[in-house]
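Final paragraph of the annual report: two paired records, presented back to back.
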Amino acid sequence: MPGQERTLTLRFLAEPADVNFGGKVHGGAVMKWIDLCAYGCAAGWSGKYCITAYVGGMHFVKPILVGSMVEVDAKVIYTGRTSMHLRIHVRAGDPKSTERELCTHCIAVMVAMDENGKPAQVPEWIPETEQDKRQHESAVKLMEMRNSIHEEMTTYLDAD
């Protein structure tokens, strides 16, 4: 039922196909996992097909080793009329242990779509805990910052 599940955790082993030339998991593989988890969380919250509108503030904190147990966690921290902002954490560690260390984190913005490919309304999420309220306020500040960055980035859209 839409508006009920605001978190999703994907758990899997980092595979040899995910390795880069340095012997660690490729950043592109991590980005794919983030997108998959963000989609699953947003679709679960909205009950609709969702598209990725933005992923930003991505920090690669620690490398992930092939064979590590990886957990990608997404949580709705803000809802607009048709969009959902999600906090994403990627943690990894030895599969024989329950310990996981933060390796990557970011924010993703997903937009719900209707059957005609148009943005669709999503259930409102209302923060309740103090942490939820802080993350909600942060999402609003980040939206304002993204708007400024977007304006600045238009300089790079000129055809060369």
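The closing record of the year follows.
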Amino acid sequence: MKIGILKETQKGEKRVSLSPNIAKQLIAKGFQIIVEEEAGKGSSYKDSDFTAVNASIEKRGVVFKEADVLIKINPFDDEDLKLVDKGQILISQLYHKSNPKLIEAIAAKGATAFSMDAIPRISRAQDMDVLSSQNNLAGYKAVILGAYEMTKIFPLMMTAAGTITPSKVLIFGVGVAGLQAIATAKRLGAVVEATDIRSETKEQAESLGAKFISVDNEGEESEGGYAKEASEDFAKRQKEAVNKSLFQADLVITTANIPGRKAPTLITREQVEQMKNGAVIIDLAAAQGGNCELSKLNETVIINGVKVIGTTIAPESVATNASELFAKNIYNFLVHLTEDANFKWDLEEEITDETLIVKDGNIRKN
């Protein structure tokens, strides 16, 4: 079976879906690997790194023509689909719930498609979970970006000229990204508070040293490991509970996403206008509409002295590590789906069933 690794074309994307090390491991299992030329350049992988492990380097058109399986990180776009043939297998993050037209276009080509963002949150699928592996890095990077944009330092510092008090950090969303943000901010010496719709995250946040801002919870739990949309009443009570911390915070990081839905608005313009002059908001949900009402993807908006930076959960700025982890997720996924380098097509098995969105031109999941 020939696996084609495509160069990412999305603006700002530096990651690649397979690293040379993982390519070597797949080749040892009987797969052939074809990599689009310079696909790994943004992640500091040279073409020669791939050829050194017996992967081949080809032009984009050749990869599409020869590969049985086509893999990339971001959704296949219209230009990609022009080159896709009937019977080919596509693997990427398709975000199928919010991209119905893409799924219809893939089906029209007679192709098969797996969506990596649909990996179920079950214990045996943890080593395939690209959302967790990438969000972990995104949480770390959000704190580093915030530290760069702030005009203060994080830790308590006692000097001959006086004492510097520690910065206050507030994190919305205690998922994988939020937990890593808590841990990173604490390591840097900040005073950290966190809040989440899911009451079961309280213990996790506190175990990392954050103060959890509790809101009376009336059934606002998670669905499949993800937060669900909060009720209007809960959202109002959460806003009231966090306002004091929000208005005192030096850095705010928001991480709340709901699969297939617009990101919930957690911080309004009115709230931003009451924040401290010089405060920074890093909105990791900007690609899904943003947790802050003022967020704009890949832009910095300054309101009343507050910086609102809209970014994504994709950690392109640490592309080498992000690519390594994504590649390992892909390896585990392929090993799970195949036997002797051929797909098993066990449609009764949960991981296969949840991730197989289109099979031979037929849409299975909406």
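The radius of gyration is 22 Å. This concludes the annual technical report; the extension proposal builds directly on these records.
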